[in-house]
Amino acid sequence: MATTDANNVEQLRARVAELESELAELRQAQPASARQRIDRMSAEVVDSNPYSRLMALQRMGVVQNYERIREQAVLIVGVGGVGSVTAEMLTRCGVGRLILFDYDKVEMANMNRLFFQPHQAGLSKVEAAKRTLLGINPDVQIEAHSCNVTTMEGYELLRSRAAEGGLPDGGPVQTLLACVDNYEARVAVSAMCTELGLTWLESGVSEDAVSGHVQLMRPGRTPCFACLPPLVVAEGGDERTLKREGVCAASLPTTMGIVAGLLVQATLKLLLGFGRVSPYLGYSAMTDFFPVESLKPNPDCAEPACQRRQREAAKADAAAAAAATPDSAEQDSSAAAAAVHSENDWCIELVEEGGDEAAAGRSVGAGGGVRTAYSVPAAAADAAAPAAAVQDSGLSLEDLRAQMGRL
Amino acid sequence: MVDEATKKTLAAIPLLKTKAGPRDADLWVQRLKEEYQALIQYVQTNKQADNDWFRLESNQEGTRWFGKCWYYDQLKRYEFNVEFDIPVTYPTTAPEIAIPELDGKTAKMYRGGRICLTDHFKPLWARNVPKFGIAQAMALGLGPWLAVEIPDLIARGVVVHKDDQDS
């Protein structure tokens, strides 16, 4: 008996060794890229050149210097339905570096969207994405960070990579793309980019999956997320009877893909300097409507960093205006004067719409169609919460913790 | 904006004064003290009204909170573990309260068991930055959520009282 056992153990050991070497081989082969890295982008039109069609943009006069794409580092927060497709497009475009942040794992529930595949279920989204992307284009440097950017640790890591992850090494990233699905993460990204003075692009798809948007965020010149809080109107009624919509948000690969396409288009235009990037581009699938809007920052923004950036922008504009010739300034003012029509047979008057609406509907000059949903109360107590303010009891934090524990 | 019962609950919770988040070193300590004071006051009020329904404690830095909440249905007590992180942008954004053990059992939750709040919550919170804190988030967020969702989960047989399990 003993010898048979010993034989079995020997056999098993050999099998383990065999499997281990097989695994090591497979690991070495990862990422399974079918091509070698390429040092320089070539414009040569041959079937084997992955960049020939991109370099053709130069020859056609769309982009002056396409190769600059390799000097661009892009940070993507959120590698879900929009972020993963965005990452793939930028990878195929040959971007220099991609830094990916997401704390989620791939789930089967993600399979109605593009990019991820069923065999990746259970893997961290950033790790799974990194493997796929390196397989598509090994020239792109890819960094994967699996963490939640709204927690302290995650935020600090995001901030340091945004400030130092750029190309060449050590500087800030060239831009950041927010592809997240919640307000908290957007506010965190917005606060960070405003502090760093980093121009970024915000994207989103509505919970009903039939509309989306891409927004250019330039600290001090466009609203940050604290400037224009979500326009949700609160109505009366009993809290307990309020229905919560099924939160399992709907999603479509179409809308997600379209928004990712619009986002990457804006990114390429921004980074390579061609065309014009819309400050806000909406997409309504129901009516095939693509509204373009300009948005201004809120001078009453509660975020001190945003106010600081707004002052900097105003100063820069004033300096630019002073540098311009006085002649052109005069022309501008005459053009801006109200047009006076000598004939008006039909007594047509221009009346400002909704001029005497309640303060809650006050326009903050943020842009067409944007109104506040509620007024920000002054320092006085809010009617909804007539409670007294907490009084300092003189107890230390430890005392209070102990008191809480005794309850 | 809110109903009378909620107004009354809110009125009994002290408002906070310090606008500070976990990135604000000393001011955050001040804010944490206010948070604890408001929470202690709220729990005491609940006890006096025979409506005690949760306990919370935090880590040393006050960035991670955990504890228990319970709900009575047909004279049976159902207890759940509660947890949440204080977001870096707190108090501009409210904490996302989670009951991980109910993750996947109801549609009224985001990943990780974070409860879905009503459309009222965020505007109300935004109007009251920095006066609202964790106690208000519990009163306006988790309290109403439990009242609506737990009876439904029990009725659907998704949540079973521990005495009735395996029987």
TrEMBL record, chain A:
- Pfam families associated with the record: ThiF (PF00899)
UniProt entry tagged with the keyword Protein biosynthesis: no
Q: Any idea which GO molecular function terms this record carries?
A: ATP binding; metal ion binding; UFM1 activating enzyme activity
Signal sequence extent: none
The coiled-coil regions, if any, are 2-29
| Segments for region (Disordered) | 317-336
Per its UniProt record, what Gene3D superfamilies does this chain match? NAD(P)-binding Rossmann-like Domain
Which InterPro entries does this one have?
A: ThiF/MoeB/HesA, ThiF_NAD_FAD-bd, Ubiquitin-activating_enz
What processes in GO biological process is this protein linked to?
protein ufmylation
Work out whether the entry's keyword set contains Nucleotide-binding.
yes
Any Gene Ontology CC annotation: cytosol
Q: Which domain of life is it from?
A: Eukaryota
| Annotated keywords | ATP-binding, Coiled coil, Metal-binding, Nucleotide-binding, Ubl conjugation pathway, Zinc
Q: Where is the THIF-type NAD/FAD binding fold domain?
A: 51-301
Q: What is the similarity comment for this entry? A: Belongs to the ubiquitin-activating E1 family. UBA5 subfamily.
Q: What is this protein called?
A: Ubiquitin-like modifier-activating enzyme 5
User: In which organism is this protein found?
Assistant: Macrostomum lignano
From TrEMBL, chain B:
Q: Provide the alphabetized UniProt keywords.
A: Ubl conjugation pathway
GO CC, alphabetical: cytoplasm
Q: Does this UniProt record's set of keywords contain Zinc?
A: no
- Record's Pfam families? UFC1
The answer to whether keyword DNA damage applies is: no
Give the domain of life: Eukaryota
**Which Gene Ontology molecular-function terms are recorded?**
UFM1 conjugating enzyme activity
InterPro entries per the record?
A: UBQ-conjugating_enzyme/RWD, Ufc1
One Gene Ontology BP term is: protein K69-linked ufmylation
The membrane-spanning stretches of this chain are: none
The family line of this record is: Belongs to the ubiquitin-conjugating enzyme family. UFC1 subfamily.
Q: What does this protein do?
A: E2-like enzyme which forms an intermediate with UFM1 via a thioester linkage.
* Official protein name in the record: Ubiquitin-fold modifier-conjugating enzyme 1
The species this protein belongs to is Macrostomum lignano
Q: What is the lineage of its organism?
A: Eukaryota, Metazoa, Spiralia, Lophotrochozoa, Platyhelminthes
